[in-house]
Each structure stands twice: as structure tokens, then as C-alpha cells.
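Can't paste images in this forum, so I'm doing it all in text. The chain is below; anyone willing to post the predicted C-alpha cells underneath?
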Amino acid sequence: GYRVSLQGHVFGRNHTYMTFPEYSPRKHIKLDPPLNIQSNATASKCKIWWSVWNVPWYLADILQYELQYKEYSMSWEVALNKTLPSSLPQVEIEATELRSGIAYAARVRCKVSENENSFHSQWSEWSQITVFQRADVPKVSEKILNTNTLQFLFIPLSFGTLLYLLWNCKLSSRRQKASPALKFPRQLLSFSHSIVCTTGILR
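Text version of the structure:
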């Protein structure tokens, strides 16, 4: 710890003002803002990453980040803020949080995590911005939709046609087997009738 005081000369007299009787630098940290912030947006999400500079190794794993993003044409006063749960210098924004065809701007700042007792800091200044825009979802053409529809319909139609042909084949085979049996009684009746007629003549 340190003792911090101010000395001044007022009306010909020297005065000493005690500012901090016990000052601990680790409790009053202000980091440099993150730099080299970049982004990559797709149709499903936007990934944003950055790097930190001049941060001691023992602080790198206990940093806390806050992301701020907005529509590019809007003011930062209406921006959305996200305090990130991880100390990793990256974040992903779901596409559902972004409007299609709109450009967005994002920036980030950092400080030591509030869950850390050994160190304490205030937020750094905001980083430079990165600009991104959600990629549009590719539209499926009507031709592809029609092709897929025909493919789905082809299978049941083919199956139904096959069943219909098999059914007709079975019916035709049954008819061919049954036709001699149906003709035979008629021939037998005509033959017996001729016999009766001939017998009657003879008598």
C-alpha cells in the first residue's frame, strides 16, 4: 500500500492534504480498452472477437467484458448492453436479435470481474467499433419446391399404380379360370335339350 498526499503553497504557507492515508493500486485499476475488434455475421449468428493490450497475465483470466451494440444509424443511448459471463474475448449474437438488411455497430469494454476480491477496477473506455450485417437466409426457388413435391408424390403414386395393376392381374386370372366352368353348364343344358327334342321326335 501507499500513502498519497498533496502539498500546496497557500498565502505564503505550505500545506499538506492527506488524500489517501492507505492507497492500494490493485483496488484502483483502470485497464486500457480492448482493441482490434472484429466481427463475422452469417444467417444464423454474428460472432464478435477482440484482443486486450497491456494486461498482466494474472488479470487476463479474471476480466469481465461488456458488449454494446445498436443499429448503425441509431444513437448509443438506445444501444443494447450485454455483460458477458466468460472471460474469453469473444461473443456470439443470435440472428433472431438482429433485423435483416440493417447494419449494426458494436463495441466492448473491460474491467476486473466483480467476483474477484483481490483486485478491483472500473470499466475501461469503450473500444473502437466493428460494423456488421446479418446475412439473408437464401430463398428456395419455386422450381426446387416443385421438384421436391413431385419427388414426394411420385412414391405413393407409383405404389398405388403397382397395387392397381396387381389387383387387375389377379381379377383377370380369376375370370379366366372361372369362364370354362361358367360355359360348361350352358353347353350341358343345350345338349340335354337336344336329346329331349330328339327323343320326342322318335316317340
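Residues 88 and 166 are 67 Å apart (CA to CA). The two ends are 152 Å apart (CA to CA).
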